Amino acid sequence: MQEYWIRWETWMRQHAPKLLNILNPGVTYEAVESLEKLIDSPLPADFKAFYAVHDGQRKARTGLVDGDLLLSVEDIADNWHYWQDLLDAGTFTYNDHPIASEPDTGIRSSWWNPLWIPITSDGFGNHLCLDLDPAPEGHHGQIIALWHDDNHREIVASSFREWISGYIDAIERGDYVFVKKWGIVHKGTSFNYND
């Protein structure tokens, strides 16, 4: 997985060298083990290998993933706790019945599932998640999009490797640009590029 970081960092050096300063050092084995104990599930090997190089990014106003933050393992745990607290409080039930989402085939119809592990954040409760509890038609470790105020759940990629490979390919192809105020964003996004 180091090859993806090498390619991503090469792009950053050419287009946005200051982004290199917000990368965290690699995650420790103990931190990964702690997260796996918290979620009560092993994490995919590709995810762990990727995070061994850089533990996501520091909290900043600029995001590395289409304007969103690439969460550190500590921030993943914090976001997971936030969703788990909402689940424990009964937020995702109405008249004692679970509130269902409208998922793509392969995703369970929960509003949120404790085995949906947030890996990115836009700061407003929306995430890309590792799905460690897919529906029978899905793939363990698939990447799904979760919106806090929209009931659609979308499969973005069938694995962490497929997702990061596709994202780095798109960056290198020029589908994404660096915008100082937002970070790396899709070229077609309606952000004001002069901000």
Automatic annotation (TrEMBL):
Domain Knr4/Smi1-like: 26-166
UniProt-listed Gene3D superfamilies: SMI1/KNR4-like
Family matches, as SUPFAM superfamilies: SMI1/KNR4-like
SMART domains: SMI1_KNR4 (SM00860)
Protein name: Molybdenum cofactor biosynthesis protein MoeA
The organism of origin for this protein: Chitinophaga flava
